[in-house]
Amino acid sequence: MNTGEYYKLKHFIPWTRRNIYRLLVLAILPTVLFAVFEIRWIAIPWPIIALVGVGASFIAGFRNTQTYNRLWEARTIWGAIINDSRTWGVMVRDFITEKETDNDSSSLSEIHQRIIYRHIAWLTALRHQLRKPQSWENQSKPYFKEYLNYYKVPEWEIDIEDDLNPFLSQGDLKYVLAKKNRATQILALQSEDLKKLRKKGLIEGFPYVNLENQLKDFFAHQGKCERIKNFPYPRQFTSISLYFIWLLVILVPFGLLDSLSKLGEFGVWLTIPFSVIIGWVFTSLEQVGESTENPFEGGANDIPMAQISRAIEIDLREMLGKTELPNPIVPTNQILM
Predict the structure, then answer these.
(1) Is residue 68 packed enough to be buried (19+ CB in 10 Å), middle (13-18) or exposed (0-12)?
(2) Which terminus of the chain is more exposed, N or C, with fewer CB under 10 A?
(3) What is the per-residue pLDDT across 234-246, written as a single tens digit (0 to 9) for each?
(4) Which spans in 36-99 are helix H?
């Protein structure tokens, strides 16, 4: 997530420079053919270009709206995770208090810490799962790789085992790492733990139901994230947007040749800069939409899951009475992950 007012042109122009290079070639070639070799018949009436432009504008606007909706839905889900995680911490601390524990079992504070730390482990496992690359995502794109010079993706910098180790017992850690969907298994361990505490009489019936319902909500949040992660923006709309926009930027120079040639001896050469400017507007819209459609792929426009998880971790640790707290995650070059 970019935390600045906007992307500076010194970053945005290099980010889109490959499209600018292509647009220059597409603009120079017909202009040279028209002006130097005097092949006049290649000029196309502007109304034809305008009709293609209407279709390209519509589909580009539609795509960007839908990709923004995917991004905002993902942020809404993580906002709900924040609220429900705080509720979970309070419920665990205040509901598991009915009896003093036996000599052979953990103290209440240890039980609270075990369950709350396991929840932090769930956040960690979920982050790692959502950051795994998918074939339709953009990690292989040159502009994506280059922008990684400005920030780091925490989930790609540390192994999941090392990330989970502070929050799970060795038995739980070994069990979870052997599973495919680790976040799901952590929630299952939570439910199993609550059931055992209920049998011991440490949780009353109604609080027990509320705690299980809270786990149900976490499953729902996880499922919503997985739906966004595992179902790409429909490829048919991606394809038609790409084709319409590039058809438009290819045709634009041909539509400008005749009109600009009437401005004077050198007027036709204005076709090059104006074609590049018009094409850059549309290809930038396409690239922005492409970089927004997968909000968990590790891009600069992603949901800052690591920062959100760290904020939740700090809140939960404070609920346990901890004073040694991890530092909040801060932006790197105005990029927050």
Answers:
(1) middle
(2) N
(3) 999 999 999 999 9
(4) 46-95
